[in-house]
Design goal:
Layout lengths: L22 E3 L2 H16 L18 H13 L3 E5 L8 H12 L4 E2 L10 E3 L19 E4 L5 E8 L3 E2 L2 E5 H11 L2 H8 L1 E4 L11 E6 L2 E4 L2 E4 L3 H10 L6 H14 L5 E4 L6 E5 L3 E5 L2 E2 L9 E8 L11 H4 L15
């Protein structure tokens, strides 16, 4: 019998439809303190990677930020900070703001083989497919996990249409599978070789040389790392199509992830910072459209954060696209 996820990390979107406790509104004094910290690092000419925690100290918000960090690590696994000062700020200011706030919740890590620490998520004419990642495309993104412990997204501008953020509890999906289709869990715990879509570090194979488990357990805590497309494409690259059992397991997972009862939908507003635990919450995005005549296009700034001392540790996208060492607590199953 597989372990069952428990606690606040197991939730259903339908239960939160009329509950906005996952939104924390920045008090006016706190917003002023954040703006002052931002103005100071900008005045000093500090680049984001040069900003240290003491450069972005926010003493009046420290207790609130500790509570929010605990909610992301041990609670529902996500939180939105609302009312951050983004209006009229330059792109450099927005990067510094994202970085400075992120330091209160973890340690920023590289997101690509080119060592990018901050990603501007917006339509730059890219596509999402076998040879590209999705953050420069307006395409719909299926439920997936990102790299590191936390993904942070600072909303600068909304799209004219679409671009809604969708979240689902990995623990709720796991438990539903354990109750209704336990035969699929063994497949998902084994995982898949994953296609890195040409974004792997130089000199490394396109398909991961190890299996990426969808579910795993470390320190008694359930982890979930999911990317159906990359799993399917990995098998194709190796000339090993999915088995019927693997296809059935992924279909069952996706059916639950897209079930309206499991999904929480949110429309991020400018000045929102969404923090999501990559090991306990899956996220996706609806397709979006920007009016070509509009001067304000959908734009979010993305940050990946490692959380030292986190109870969660598993192979994840950090290990697909960067040279981050594999977590010591994870059992690594090699391909071949």
């Amino acid at each position: 019998m597989a372990m069952m996820a428990s606690g606040r990390e197991v939730w259903h979107g339908s239960d939160l439809a009329n509950d906005d406790s996952w939104i924390w509104r920045v008090p006016p004094a706190g917003a002023a303190e954040i703006e002052e910290a931002l103005d100071q690092v900008v005045k000093r000419g500090l680049q984001p990677a040069e900003i240290r925690p003491e450069d972005f100290a926010l003493p009046s918000l420290a207790a609130d930020f500790r509570r929010i960090a605990d909610e992301v690590e041990r609670g529902r696994g996500f939180q939105v900070l609302r009312g951050l000062p983004v209006e009229g700020r330059s792109e450099g200011d927005l990067h510094a703001l994202t970085w400075g706030l992120g330091l209160h919740f973890g340690t920023p890590v590289e997101q690509t083989k080119d060592r990018e620490l901050l990603i501007d998520v917006r339509d730059e004419g890219g596509s999402f497919g076998k040879n590209s990642r999705g953050y420069h495309s307006p395409a719909k993104l299926d439920f997936h996990s990102d790299g590191a412990n936390i993904v942070g997204l600072l909303c600068v501008n909304k799209a004219d249409e679409g671009g809604l953020s969708l979240l689902a509890s990995a623990g709720a999906i796991h438990n539903a599978l354990a109750e209704s289709h336990p035969e699929h869990l063994a497949v998902l715990y084994d995982g898949f070789p994953v296609d890195r879509r040409g974004a792997q570090p130089d000199g490394e194979p396109r398909v991961s040389p190890w299996f990426l488990p969808v579910f795993s357990v470390t320190r008694g805590h359930l982890n979930c790392v999911y990317s159906r497309n990359a799993s399917v494409w990995g098998r194709e690259q190796l000339g090993q199509p999915l088995t019927p059992a693997e296809t059935a397991a992924l279909d069952a997972f996706d059916a639950l992830a897209h079930d309206p009862a499991f999904v929480l939908q949110m429309d991020l507003a400018p000045g929102d910072l969404q923090l999501v635990n990559n090991f306990t919450v899956l996220h996706s995005r609806t397709a979006f459209f920007n009016d070509p005549a509009s001067t304000r296009r959908r734009h979010l700034v993305r940050l990946w954060l490692d959380v030292p001392g986190s109870e969660h540790a598993a192979i994840n996208k950090l290990h697909l696209y960067t040279r981050a060492p594999l977590p010591q607590l994870a059992a690594v199953r090699l391909v071949g």
